[in-house]
Amino acid sequence: MAIENKIRRIIRWGLYPVSWIWVIYALNRFLAMGVDERPAWILITLPLLLTYLVIELTLPMQKRWSMTWRTLLPDLAYIVSSGATVALVSAGLAMLTITISSKTGGPAGDWPVWIQLPVLFLVFEFMNYHIHRGMHELRGPLGGLLWRIHAAHHLPERLYLLMHAVSHPFNAVLVQAFAIILPIWLMGYSPDAVLIFLVINAFHGIVSHFNVDLRLGWANYIFVGPEVHRYHHSADVNEAKNYGATLTLWDQIFGTFVFHPGLAPQELGVSPDANLPPISSFRQSWPCPSDALVRKALSKRTTF
Predict the structure, then answer these.
(1) Is residue 117 within 8 Å of residue 196, measured between CB atoms?
(2) Mean residue pLDDT across the chain
(3) Within 10 Å of residue 44's Cβ, how many Cβ atoms?
(4) What average pLDDT does this structure show over 163-170?
(5) Helix crossing, 2-33 with 37-58: angle to 10°?
(6) CA nearest 160: which of 220, 90, 230, 223?
(7) What is the mean pLDDT of residues 236-255?
(8) Are 297 and 276 in contact (CB under 8 A)?
(9) pLDDT grade for 284, boundaries at 50, 70 and 90
(10) CA–CA gap between residue 252 and residue 235 (Å, rounded)
(11) Is the predicted pLDDT of residue 275 greater than 50, yes or no?
(12) How far is the CA of 72 from the CAs of 77, 87, 167, 280, in angstroms?
């Protein structure tokens, strides 16, 4: 037990900075080699995913949120159909994004990478923030459509690594098309800047759903990690904010940033007041629940 506690402390404070070291080292190596950026995105992020998966299965933060065989096997068909589809869609769109960046011109094309990169992140996060917030809070027919696309990601009362890919494929298409591909096509960022952006974005997508006691400390006020993103999955609608994907900047600016250091939400999933069906019923009618249920859910959600 003493050895396990020491390992947990090392992971709690050491895994995140070590992951950053790997990301920076791998990006430098690939950029220095001058090879095709498209496979680099997968080759850099895949070792992170596998490492985090092994740690999560071995040392989960809360077992009630874990991926177990008891919970996984009944869900396997859903995870394969939705998760694999989303993963393939996301990977394909990421490859397309890098390809587009190598063939388009724009005002950012002449900027140095150290200027392109923060602008790329700020624009993406601004677009993603409002799309994501709209999925949760927007009313009317458009709000209903967006929530139907997004709801599957929030119905499980658990939060583990592979949850990142469990959602409707249109969710990935919307975010990629309007928050990533369109701005890159208009701005003309370089493939190197796009690769760096995609790797860091994918890295935080992995980290944010990590069911391990990983602490970011002061970095929570810059980046989206598990401490911040768990509140987005809280069953308490007053806590279920934090719409950023990689940065917490726009949440702090628009007043939707929720962070209680050292504490986790009491319960995850969707509040019973939302009147959504359980995840098992949702799978039977995948990709979305009925319009009547959606209207009831929308009536319970907060608005802009």
Answers:
(1) yes
(2) 81
(3) 23
(4) 72
(5) 180
(6) 230
(7) 95
(8) yes
(9) very low
(10) 21
(11) no
(12) 9, 18, 15, 12
Burial (CB count <10 Å: 0-12, 13-18, 19+), residue 36: middle
Contact 150, 136 (CB under 8 A): yes
Sole residue written with tokens 């997508």: 205
Name the amino acid, one letter, at 209: H
Q: Which of 108-112, 159-163, 206-210 has the lowest mean pLDDT?
A: 159-163
Coil/strand/helix, residue 92: helix
* DSSP conformation class of 180: I
DSSP symbol at 176:
I
How many Å apart are CA 142 and CA 29, to the nearest integer? 44
Closest alpha carbon to 265 in 302, 245, 239:
239
How many Å apart are CA 217 and CA 142, to the nearest integer? 37
pTM over 0.90, yes/no: no
Residues in the chain, how many? 304
Question: Count of CB atoms within 10 A of residue 194's CB?
Answer: 24
Give the three-class secondary structure for 223. Answer: strand
Q: Answer whether residue 160 shows pLDDT above 80.
A: yes
Q: In this structure, which amino acid lies at residue 237? A: V
